[in-house]
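TL;DR need structure tokens for one chain.
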Amino acid sequence: MYKCSYERLDEKIKTFSKFGDTGKGGITRFSLSDEAIAARTELVRRCKALGMDVVTDDMANIYATLKGSENLPAILSGSHIDSVRQGGNYDGVLGVLSALEMLETVVKENIPHKHPFTLVVWTNEEGALFEPAMMSSGVICGKFEKETMLKSKDMNGVTFAQALEKSGFAGDISNRLTPEKYKALIELHIEQGPVLDIEKIDIGVVEGVCGMINYEFSFRGQAGHAGTTPMKYRKDALYAAVKTIQYLHDELDKLDSALVYTTGKISCHPNIHTIIPDEVKFTLDARHYKPAVITQVLEIIKKIPSEVEKCEVSYTQAWSRASVAFNKRLIDYVETSAKELGFSLMRIYSGPGHDAQFVSDVIPTTMIFVPSVDGHSHCEIEYTPTEACLKGVNVLLAAMLKADAE
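>> reply
TL;DR here they are.
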């Protein structure tokens, strides 16, 4: 089987870690920032040097294509270049660099392929500067209205439309991904969690993206003096919220062990140490790949009474996401490729969202995960050894060639 180059991949990772380098081992590379533009420019330079045709669409998504021997729809691979604030050197960009190394191997080794191979870079996957996340893939896949997205503003009031125009990467709408022009997408990504690393597994064969719900709970009590109000007369909104959080944890722990849930945001009013809290809010984020389990979570939420510890309780759904199942044929290509290369593997679902989940509604799609050391991601200590990355890239190449031979 064909193999990609450790040295070339390592050089790519080290070079692109300089664009937005925080000096602390990570990067801050917001979408369409000067740092992101510099990274994009270097990527385009390298793609053209390999003989690839490069175009962008109206949302600045990049498509760099290596022609095939026949006039067929292209097979895609790639991810995103932008990061969160003080993020790592692997989330997103590793998928881009993996596609680049895979394509460089095809060129250097003169590997025959019928379909064109296209490296794709999605704009504003993180949504760290311009909300929402997965913005540009969402627009071209029909999830978001373009005009609404163009009005999204950063903290300084700059709109996404203005950043898009300034970037020089806004292209023609005719260059967008469509099922007529593209056959499939295989994206490599770090796991962003600890499972593969803890289990000492080389490759995560991704079956889909977990569905999720996000709810906000509100508790209204009565403010009072901390020194004069007897405990039995209090309407302490924080105490009511704590009791409810405990209830949720106790009940959700009885469900499928693959369910993950988080109380990630909490506010307490008036947040003064001498006043009994009169209003408390918290969020619940719950994720699972089976819709039936998400339904069970909803049933547990609905059992919360309208009054807890004499405080009024209400809740609303902030947002939700349906589970996404990837293409079974492509999943099998990834699994077979990993086995042929002698790598350990496990089937896995993604908890975080990815552009690939939107693309899967348009063309057949799957993903490949490589381990994240200690599960760290979206932080400066995010790390995957180049040896582990290379295993994923070799699986990517083998799976792309299987898809090509279909």
